[in-house]
Amino acid sequence: MLAAQVALDRAGFSTGEIDGRSGQNVQRALSAFQQSHQLSPTGQMDDATWKQLTSAGGDVPPLVEYTLTAADLAGPFTPDIPPKLPDQAALDELNYRTPLEAIAERFHSSPALLQQLNPQATFQQAGERIMAPNVANASPTSPAQDITVFVTKSTSALTIEDAGGRILLHAPVTSGSVHDPLPIGTWKVNGVQRNPKFHYNPELFWDATAGDRKATLQPGPNNPVGIVWIDLSKPHYGIHGTPEPSKIGHVESHGCVRLTNWDADRVAQWVKPGTRVVFRE
After folding, report:
1. What pLDDT, in 10s, does the model give residues 18-30?
2. Which DSSP string do the residues of 180-212 spell out, in sequence order?
3. How far apart are CA 4 and CA 1, in angstroms?
4. Which of 240, 159, 245, 149 lies closest to 192, judged by CA?
5. Which of 112, 21, 1, 3 is nearest to 63 (CA)?
6. CA 221 to CA 225: how far, in whole Å?
7. Edge to edge, what strands does the sheet with 276-280 contain?
């Protein structure tokens, strides 16, 4: 399963946070990959899918050795991040909490998986060698000119498709809730902002605490919208990253389309002002 997640990630069909376990995110990524390569979209691994997958993502070992550097441990880090957004606004930065969290995100994996793969590692010493998912060089296919971004509510997935409907990129998303449903319709990209600040407006949050005031949260990977904000023509809506990659595809959001930080970065490489974005059931 770990090898399958890595191969899918390298091919541009993300399963979200790589954790070595099966689940809906893996099945949906497999199905999208199979559909893109004219295979029966069963969502299950078979010989034909594996052969095509290793060809598309590169037939490489699923794990790679990595040596921690002084820069990995230098930070800056923000170890204590309060849970409430107004309280987070008091912080100067919203960095990774620990070196382990930062390294795990670099390799698109859960911290728990890295610890499982490296039970003797401290993730605190420069020169320490670890094994990690082999995704460091993973990159999407060169962006096509005529693409459409689709966000599908029923599958909790974002896909980028060419004019012929072929899926070029897939990623799991969290999109909307009973209180903030995904606004079905066709929109467009206004622009892309990297390392954005987050402007908290309690009037837009159904679960805001009474008495909350508007606040501005500083940039960083633990910012509520992560490292990328893709602004849409629908007011107050965007496609963005997250400080909680383990929840992508599994929980609800406040209406926007949330991806892991690395998947949001990938999508940002494809889109430009005017790119069509379709929200569908």
Report:
1. 999 999 999 999 9
2. S----EEEEEEEEEES--EEE-GGG-TTPPTT-
3. 5
4. 240
5. 3
6. 8
7. 167-172, 157-162, 147-152, 276-280, 185-194, 228-232, 238-240, 257-258, 174-175
Cis, bond preceding 76 (omega within 30 deg of 0)? yes
Instruction: For tokens 């962006």, name the residue.
Output: 143
pTM greater than 0.85 (yes/no)? yes
pLDDT digits (tens, 9 = 90+) for 118-176: 999 999 999 999 999 999 655 555 667 799 999 999 999 999 999 999 999 999 999 86
